[in-house]
Write a structure and sequence with these properties.
The chain is α/β, with parallel strands linked by helices and 304 residues long. The protein has a single domain, classed as Divalent-metal-dependent TIM barrel enzymes (TIM Barrel), CATH 3.20.20. Helix content is 40%, strand content 19%. The chain is built from nine helices and 13 strands. The protein has an eight-stranded parallel β-barrel, surrounded by five helices. It has a three-stranded antiparallel beta sheet with strand order 10-12-11, with no helix packed on it. Helix 5 packs across helix 6 and helix 7 packs parallel to helix 8. It is globular and about 45 Å long.
Length: 304
């Protein structure tokens, strides 16, 4: 396994102007990361209004990573391919293709894109709606997979958000899309967003994983957090609500309520030998939280 981090971990530092993307690369290399995953928050690889790539930025980031001997493992973007408006769906497909072009220029072979919007209203995240919208999801994902494959890239799907989440839904999607090597970005914590037992879900999905997001959450009953009702704001340590009404907040790896040790044993026992990408989204200062999370991830995976 190669243990590294997502640039998402240091988004607060980039948002505050404390770190540039080049500083993030240096930070990852200085803290022993074997790879880095890029998420384009405060990282404008693509000018979506103009429909153009910032090739200078992309090239300089690729060269900086090579200079620091830091492998770029994957590139992950949010997306919503199932708008009821055909014109909006087409615009979104073409937007994601620009990000696939970015991944190709970065020289990587793996890219994750979403299928459904993260902020869908909770009441729409039903099994009935999933079945109704499955043909659109498959159509969009196949087009993006085929486009990426033409550039030598394999796409992955992540258990992300509240609609395209849960082990059965992700496995169903992968089988329906039916493309060679289509796989998962397996986030060990995100199954909690849909109140699925995370150990069983990881065990079911690990054979589909090309990259693993290694993270941790605090879990609380909503009744024990009076006044903490903010929804969908999972960054910077805010509480957010699951489909079943529990509350989650990002934590340092190994300090939350997931049995991350048991999850690590499942990963190790499966023979998984790909990328492990630490994701820290807690309320602690992001450099400190990410550093401790990396140290914990290495120790837990070594001892599991």
């Amino acid at each position: 396994m190669k243990i590294g981090m997502s640039s998402y971990c240091l988004t607060p530092a980039m948002a505050a102007g404390r770190k540039s993307v080049y500083d993030v690369i240096d930070w990852a290399a200085d803290h022993g990361c074997e790879h880095i995953e890029f998420v384009p928050f405060y990282l404008p690889f693509v000018n979506e209004e103009k429909g153009a790539l910032d090739t200078g930025l992309i090239d300089s980031v690729r060269e900086k990573c090579a200079e620091r001997s830091l492998e770029i493992s994957t590139y992950s973007v949010n997306a919503d391919l199932i708008s009821p408006d055909p014109a909006e769906r087409r615009r979104e497909i073409e937007r994601v293709k620009l990000h696939i072009d970015t991944a190709a220029r970065l020289g990587i072979k793996l890219m994750r894109h979403d299928i459904a919007g993260f902020r869908r209203p909770f009441e729409t995240n039903t099994a009935e709606n999933f079945e109704r919208e499955l043909p659109l999801m498959v159509e969009g994902a196949r087009e993006l997979y085929d486009y990426a494959a033409s550039l030598g890239i394999t796409t992955t799907l992540e258990n992300h958000g509240f609609f395209c989440n849960g082990s059965d839904r992700l496995i169903r999607l992968i089988r329906e899309i039916d493309r060679p090597n289509i796989s998962m970005t397996l986030d060990v914590g995100n199954f909690l967003c849909v109140d699925e037992y995370e150990y069983a879900a990881v065990k079911k999905c690990i054979k589909y994983a090309k990259i693993i997001h290694f993270k941790d959450f605090y879990i609380r009953e909503k009744s024990k957090l009076p006044g903490q009702t903010e929804m969908f704001n999972c960054d910077c340590g805010s509480w957010f609500e699951t489909l079943g009404g529990r509350m989650l907040r990002g934590s340092i790896v190994g300090q939350g309520d997931l049995d991350i040790w048991e999850i690590a044993r499942i990963i190790k026992g499966s023979g998984f030998d790909g990328y492990v990408s630490v994701e820290f989204e807690g309320m602690e200062e992001c450099e400190q939280g990410t550093r401790i999370s990396l140290d914990m991830a290495r120790a837990i995976l070594a001892l599991a």
